[in-house]
Design brief:
- It is a single chain.
- This protein is an alpha/beta fold.
- It folds into 3 domains: 207 residues, 3-Layer(aba) Sandwich (Rossmann fold); 54 residues, no CATH class; 89 residues, no CATH class.
- Helix content is 49%, strand content 7%.
- It has a 5-stranded parallel beta sheet, sandwiched between helices. A two-stranded antiparallel ribbon has the order 4-5.
- Helix 2 links the parallel strand 1 and strand 2.
Length: 378
């Protein structure tokens, strides 16, 4: 069977257990495909809508097209008898614009800051929850785990999205008894990017215009992801907002005073950019990134990482650098340097770097063995 047939079968298997099913909804492309698969099977009478609760964690600083898409799908699921919980809670988020401050986090829907919220919560939003005892107690991922314990959580995570997602899926699959000890299932985990966009095309699905905004400003198709404005996945779209919607940009700057950094330093190492414009600004001078990393991580880390969050991340990089420096290429050294400058609070760049370095090293060794074998045979 193809991946679409497999996903439909997995979804039917989830609902066949007769327990509550919680589907995470984000208005992103993966979430939309999974939602359509579920909705379509409800309409065909293959699964019971009364078991379904759609969970949307509203991150406040969302693109208008994401909010509009969520409104449409809320109406659809409610019309077939499912529940749709729209949460607007003070949860902790990471901002890529705050690496120079004492904390890299910000709080969605933070109490006391109502006058500078990017948006107003909808009247039906859930504004409090007993699981959340104080402001910023947990991230939305931790919150999702809490509120879905009595059923099965269905998520649109895919293995091909990133090294981190692949490792996450691998950990789920390789635990004893497979997935049976966890209540999370990813029906479209084996879909590729092309599968997602082809499904959207063949089923004529609407998707947020913000994807096109990201594409227009140069985001490659494999990296088209949506989240809140200040997350690494969708920070590129801020430049488009500043150009076309000054009213919204004013609200964003009021909520996050560092938003201007995106306009000033986009073509720089602060945002992991390696562009022609960056090379023009910095010149063609070759830097000794190994020496720079030695200075940053081994000699004077306290000078470069001045808040607890960035220092903690730097110590993780330091351990990796000590163990792996002799295996790293100049390109990997530069990637590590840029990740440290841009900030890596979730250690996503470090995990990807780990995979790259050890894969390159293994490939080099295999090639070296082959070369030696050819030399011996000659």
């Amino acid at each position: 069977m193809d991946v679409v047939q497999a996903a439909r079968l997995r979804i039917r298997n989830v609902f066949s257990n007769g327990v509550p099913v919680y589907m995470s909804f984000s208005a992103g492309k993966d979430s939309l495909c999974m939602s359509h698969l579920v909705y379509d099977q409800i309409m065909q009478g293959r699964i019971d809508a009364s078991l379904l609760t759609v969970v949307f964690i509203d991150e406040e600083a969302l693109y208008p097209s994401m909010e509009a898409m969520t409104l449409r799908w809320r109406k659809r699921f409610l019309s077939v008898g499912a529940q749709f919980r729209w949460y607007c809670l003070p949860l902790k988020q990471i901002s890529v614009l705050r690496q120079l401050q004492n904390s890299e986090s910000w709080i969605t829907w933070e109490p006391g800051k109502e006058d500078c919220w990017v948006r107003t919560p909808p009247p039906w939003a859930i504004r409090s929850c007993p699981y959340l005892e104080y402001v910023g107690q947990m991230t939305y991922q931790d919150f999702l785990t809490k509120i879905t314990r009595d059923g099965i959580q269905m998520t649109g995570v895919r293995a091909s999205e990133s090294v981190q997602r692949l490792q996450y899926i691998a950990r789920m699959e390789t635990k004893e008894h497979g997935l049976s000890k966890r209540n999370i299932i990813a029906p479209i985990y084996d879909w590729k990017d092309n599968d997602i966009w082809l499904y959207i095309k063949e089923h004529d699905l609407d998707f947020p215009e913000a994807y096109m905004d990201l594409y227009r400003v140069g985001t490659p198709k494999p990296r088209l992801r949506l989240s809140n404005y200040f997350a690494s996945e969708s920070i590129a779209g801020l430049r488009q907002v500043a150009e076309v919607d000054p009213t919204l940009w004013e609200r964003i700057e009021r909520r996050e005073p560092n938003a201007y950094l995106t306009l000033l330093y986009w073509d720089s190492e602060m945002f992991h950019r390696s562009t022609r414009k960056r090379r023009q600004m910095e010149g063609e001078v070759q830097k000794d990134y190994k020496a720079i990393l030695t200075e940053m991580l081994l000699k004077h880390p306290e000078k470069y990482f001045t808040n607890p969050g960035t220092y903690r991340v730097a110590m993780q990089y330091r351990r990796f650098f000590i163990k792996s420096a002799n295996m790293m290429t100049p390109k990997s050294m530069r990637t590590m340097h840029d990740a440290l400058v841009a900030g890596d609070p979730k250690l996503r760049s470090l995990r990807a770097l780990f995979t790259t370095v050890y894969t390159d090293y293994a490939n080099y060794n295999r090639a070296d063995i082959a070369r030696r074998k050819e030399a011996d045979e000659a």
